[in-house]
Amino acid sequence: MTRATFPETGQSRTEVLDILKSLRKNDIDWKRGRTPLYVFDAGDDVYEMGRAAFFEFFKENALGKNRAFPSVLKMENDIVDMSLDLLHGGPDACGFMTTGGTESIIQAVQSCRNRTRHDRGEPAFRGNIVTATSAHPAFDKAARLMDIEVRRAPVGADYRADPEAIEALMDDDTMMLVGSAPCFPYGVIDPIADLGALAQRRSVWLHVDACVGGYVAPFARMIGRSIPAFDFEVPGVCSISADLHKYGFCPKPASTVYYRDTTCAEFHAFDFDNWPSGRFYTTTICGTRPAGAIAAAWAVFHHLGLDGYKRIATELMEFVDDYRAGIKAIPGLKVLADPHLSVVAFTSDEVDLFRVAELMSRNGWLPGLLKEPKAIHRLMSLVHHPVLDEYLSDLRDAVETVRATGAKAEGIEAIY
Ligand SMILES: Cc1ncc(COP(=O)(O)O)c(C=O)c1O
């Protein structure tokens, strides 16, 4: 591969934009619902609101929210306040915006680790985190950055975290348990109440990773769906990560991290004064970060309101019901576990699903695969709704072909 060279002369805006468009030619067509993850969509109106607000604050820098841009500070605080209402935060609860689920998780792990070090009076305490195999790799990323151990316990028969298996991996150095709401692979919400009770009994921190569910589960509950308690209403939950840029339908990069109280949040911020430029105080790992994402999230919240989010949750969950019924109607397929929201995986005892995925990819459907057990997996939003029948019809054809030929996958791999 040749290395790109810096252009000798500049090109016109039109030329550059044309090149950008042409660069997309091999991309997966997310607008036609072909991606099983990466893009979360709630229709053109929400997209346009987020986009307009993002570019309204395109130049401002959220790093300067405390000194230069009180507008940005207010919007971030409003988002945190509004979200804490959704997540049953009490009067002492607090939170911060970040640039993504991974950053929210790293911040929460760091807060817990430093809180624990402080409380134990052991500044070099290493500690471990115990969770289920289904928890997101962001916890291992955080652990690698901070030299913490992560222990992953097998999930139960229902694919949810198994509190007994988790407890079996705990020891005196365990400082944090993690439950997902829902987990990425299976779309099920872990038994957060049981994990909360365990965390309280063993005096450790419980983090709930609601990066996927944080901004859809509350609305799904409001419209009467059966969603188990997962947030601060559960005793023992110390922190929650929740992504605005997933099912909050806000532009990337935008996530949030919340703490039950100021004691849990005490070690969140980075506060430094040992250099020539004076006090350097940030509430994110990033320094400079886009104010546009904050303005956009604020605008989307206000544009949609509770009724807008409930409307989206209604359409989404009804679509997911139809999707699940469509999967069940294809001989040889079954939905894996009993997903609570719109992350759904299906599996088969009769055909090689990875071969099915290979055939589906010929029609442009990017495969989302699970390897334990072998399954096809999608995080669905409204962009997948208009192509529901097309997806199910292609799927039925692919399953029938694989059944008829008994073909096995030619080398496709499960990659996130
Ligand atoms: C459950 C869960 N947690 C955390 C993350 C990490 O989020 P991000 O990709 O925004 O860093 C994801 C991403 O898909 C996720 O599904």
UniProtKB/TrEMBL annotation:
Keywords: Aminotransferase, Lyase, Pyridoxal phosphate, Transferase
Keyword Secreted: no
Gene3D superfamilies: 6.10.140.2150, Aspartate Aminotransferase, domain 1, Type I PLP-dependent aspartate aminotransferase-like (Major domain)
Cofactor: pyridoxal 5'-phosphate
InterPro entries xrefs: GrpII_AminoAcid_Decarb, PyrdxlP-dep_de-COase, PyrdxlP-dep_Trfase, PyrdxlP-dep_Trfase_major, PyrdxlP-dep_Trfase_small
UniProt GO MF annotations: carbon-carbon lyase activity; pyridoxal phosphate binding; transaminase activity
Superkingdom of the organism of origin: Bacteria
Record PTM N6-(pyridoxal phosphate)lysine, positions in chain: 246
Pfam families: Pyridoxal_deC (PF00282)
Family statement drawn from the similarity comment of this UniProt entry: Belongs to the group II decarboxylase family. Sphingosine-1-phosphate lyase subfamily.
Protein name as it appears in the record: Aspartate aminotransferase family protein
Organism ancestry: Bacteria, Pseudomonadati, Pseudomonadota, Alphaproteobacteria, Rhodobacterales
